């Protein structure tokens, strides 16, 4: 770290702040001070704008691989919306959070840990050089007239067999929301996937990170999220469906709470009673519930025969037998059956249904969920583990491996932007963040948005634009009469249904 950032590092105390205020911005676009020290790197220091994410600039600490300061919009819910600081853009590990949606990272009010309190000493100060960005409304790319209205032609199309297809499902890409993996704003690898497959890769590879529940974990509704806590209340991650790794909604969590409430531990004085085809539990002579057996990691009803065989029929739980019995049995409390009313069709569903039986709608949450955690005993763990799991918190970007080239990193799925609406973004992505693009890379990129093969596009690009200077700069790419306009005219014609079959010409 240079001398300048070293000085900022120590500016958390009052005199330090004054000292810091007098320092000019020697480098970078943003200064961070007051962040608690960490074992795996410091967040304090100078940052430079590295690109854009969700409509706001991304800052990367100068002279290191990270951390990043980036914005996440409300696409995953209000509780994730705001500014973040973490070692990887969108990664599971985050060091700081600010809930505001300002165009620039707010100066005060940061939280570290991210779900903690306002830290008071953390300060982010944006250089005067970049604060102008703040007033610039975001901001669609300004698209020249010849791109917005590229003129009419006939769309060239080719035999579907020849088109560039998703490397996994073989669906032609041009019509399947082609997507790539990005890691800290850079392409992970040159491969393209249809958005379905890309999302599935993320889900599959994320699911590997799912962890089973353990005794003494707690589940809670924290910051508006179905969460899993450790025994001391420290946040471990999200409560998710095992099958999809999707976080539970508040309505679903409400049902889980209601179900768990029906599982009750044995108490001294409870009595086992065999009754026709059931093994029941009485309390003070009154029916309390039925007996469940904790078998391995699951729960099942006790067969009345088993009660007799074990000599437990009419047995009363004694202080001396309580603990061993609790390790084996739990009571499923009968009584009032709970319902939830579907908000869409008003059908009354039982609390064991996680979707409306009539219309399939998800459950709604009829009341505020308790903020404190609910401890999972052995029975709770067994009850939950067939369907739910814990996913370590935050996972926009996940550790994944491209199934083709096997390159691995923490990455995000990003759809290829629309060429006629965001040509610069498209160019940066397709050229893999270089300032120029080669003929073959351009043909590759165009082949994922047009129904033409890479070979055919190579021929077209050479025939029409071979006279330009290659590799091509963005300005030449976008210029009037350039490749961007030609490709946009193709897109335009495709959308208006003017097709021409030209495969034979090749
Ligand atoms: Zn696919
Ligand atoms: Zn319904
Ligand atoms: Zn790859």
From TrEMBL:
Domain RanBP2-type as annotated: residue spans: 333-365
Record-level Gene Ontology MF annotations: zinc ion binding
Protein keywords: Metal-binding, Zinc, Zinc-finger
Entry protein name: Peroxin-7
Organism for this UniProt entry: Cladocopium goreaui
């Amino acid at each position: 770290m240079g001398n300048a950032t070293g000085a900022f590092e120590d500016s958390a105390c009052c005199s330090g702040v004054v000292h810091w205020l007098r320092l000019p911005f020697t480098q970078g676009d943003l200064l961070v001070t007051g962040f608690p020290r960490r074992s795996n790197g410091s967040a304090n220091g100078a940052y430079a704008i590295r690109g854009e994410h969700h409509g706001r600039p991304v800052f990367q600490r100068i002279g290191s691989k990270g951390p990043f300061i980036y914005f996440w919009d409300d696409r995953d819910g209000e509780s994730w919306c705001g500014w973040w600081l973490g070692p990887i853009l969108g990664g599971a590990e985050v060091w700081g959070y600010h809930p505001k949606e300002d165009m620039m990272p707010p100066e005060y009010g940061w939280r570290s840990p991210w779900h903690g309190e306002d830290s008071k000493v953390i300060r982010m100060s944006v250089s005067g050089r970049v604060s102008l960005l703040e007033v610039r409304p975001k901001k669609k790319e300004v698209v020249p007239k010849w791109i917005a209205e590229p003129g009419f032609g006939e769309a060239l199309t080719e035999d579907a067999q020849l088109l560039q297809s998703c490397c996994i499902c073989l669906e032609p890409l041009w019509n399947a929301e082609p997507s790539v993996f990005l890691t800290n704003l850079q392409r992970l690898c040159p491969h393209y996937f249809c958005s379905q497959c890309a999302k599935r890769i993320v889900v599959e590879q994320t699911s590997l990170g799912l962890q089973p529940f353990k005794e003494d974990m707690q589940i809670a509704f924290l910051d508006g999220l179905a969460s899993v806590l450790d025994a001391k209340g420290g946040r471990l991650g999200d409560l998710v469906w095992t099958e999809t790794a999707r976080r539970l909604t508040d309505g679903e969590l409400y049902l889980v709470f209601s179900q768990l409430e029906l599982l009750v531990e044995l108490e001294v004085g409870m009595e086992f009673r065999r009754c026709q085809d059931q093994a029941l539990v009485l309390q003070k002579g009154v029916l309390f519930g039925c007996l469940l057996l904790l078998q391995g990691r699951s729960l099942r009803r006790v067969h009345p025969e088993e009660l007799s065989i074990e000599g437990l029929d009419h047995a009363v739980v004694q202080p001396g037998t309580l603990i061993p019995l609790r390790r084996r049995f739990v009571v499923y409390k009968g009584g009032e059956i709970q319902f939830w009313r579907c908000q869409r069709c008003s059908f009354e569903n039982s609390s064991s249904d996680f979707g409306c039986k009539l219309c399939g709608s998800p459950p709604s949450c009829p009341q505020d969920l308790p903020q404190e955690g609910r401890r999972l005993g052995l029975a709770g763990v067994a009850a939950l583990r067939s369907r739910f799991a814990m996913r370590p918190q935050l996972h926009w970007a996940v550790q994944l491996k491209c199934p083709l080239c096997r390159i691995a990193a923490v990455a995000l799925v990003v759809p290829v932007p629309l060429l006629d609406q965001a040509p610069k973004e498209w160019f940066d992505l397709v050229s893999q963040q270089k300032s120029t693009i080669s003929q073959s890379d351009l043909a590759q990129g165009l082949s994922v948005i047009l129904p033409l093969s890479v070979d055919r596009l190579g021929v077209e690009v050479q025939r029409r634009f071979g006279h330009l200077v290659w590799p091509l700069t963005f300005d030449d790419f976008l210029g009037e009469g350039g490749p961007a306009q030609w490709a946009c005219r193709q897109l335009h014609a495709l959308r208006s249904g003017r097709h021409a079959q030209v495969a034979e010409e090749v």
